[in-house]
Every structure is written in structure tokens, then in C-alpha cells.
Specification:
Oligomer: single chain
Largest sheet: 4 strands, parallel
Strand content: 15-25%
Number of strands: 6
């Protein structure tokens, strides 16, 4: 079994060219699809973000129509490691078999 580090954005907004803020976050399916594959294969997945800040999902990515008509919130909420990610600057890459961005 492999130990895999997922590096996830902790950004909550973008600053647009006109200076306004646009809410953002990680795209749920881009995290969940590989997470499912790796964990179902028996691999260990750990998460890291800049500053160790808990990442948030982009609200648009949580809409059921973006997820085969499924509510993925409970699945995301069940991933405890997302709630307290590692601080990316403290991660020793040699501890992992792969890094997923």
C-alpha cells in the first residue's frame, strides 16, 4: 500500500481584475474521484495546504448536477483529514510514495 499526499488549495476567493472578490475553493469531484480510487485500493491519503488551513469546497462543485445527481457533502464531511490538513511547509516529501495536486 502507498502513502499519498494530496496538496489542496486553501483559497476561499479570487481577486478579479476589477478588484472584486469571487468565492472559490477546491473542486469537489477533482478531490473525491482520486481519493476514492486510492483509498479503495488500500492506500493512505493525507492532505496538506499552505499554512495548514482547512480547505473549503467551491460551492458550485457541490451542486448535485455536478456530481451525478448526488450530494457529496456527507462524503467530504467524513474525510477527517480534510478538517486538519498538514502545513505544506512542514511536509517531508520523502515520507510519501506519491504527491497528488
Amino acid at each position: 500500500m502507498s502513502k499519498i499526499l494530496f496538496v489542496v488549495s486553501a483559497a476561499t476567493n479570487w481577486t478579479l481584475a476589477d478588484g472584486t472578490q469571487h468565492p472559490t475553493g477546491f473542486w469537489a469531484e477533482e478531490l473525491l474521484a482520486p481519493y476514492r480510487l486510492f483509498t479503495e485500493a488500500g492506500d493512505t491519503v493525507e492532505f496538506a495546504t499552505p499554512g495548514g488551513v482547512a480547505p473549503v469546497a467551491d460551492e458550485a462543485s457541490l451542486a448535485p448536477e455536478m456530481n451525478d445527481c448526488n450530494d457529496v457533502r456527507p462524503e467530504l464531511d467524513a474525510i477527517d483529514a480534510l478538517k486538519q490538513p498538514l502545513n505544506l511547509s512542514d511536509v517531508a516529501l520523502d515520507d510519501y510514495d506519491a504527491v497528488f495536486y
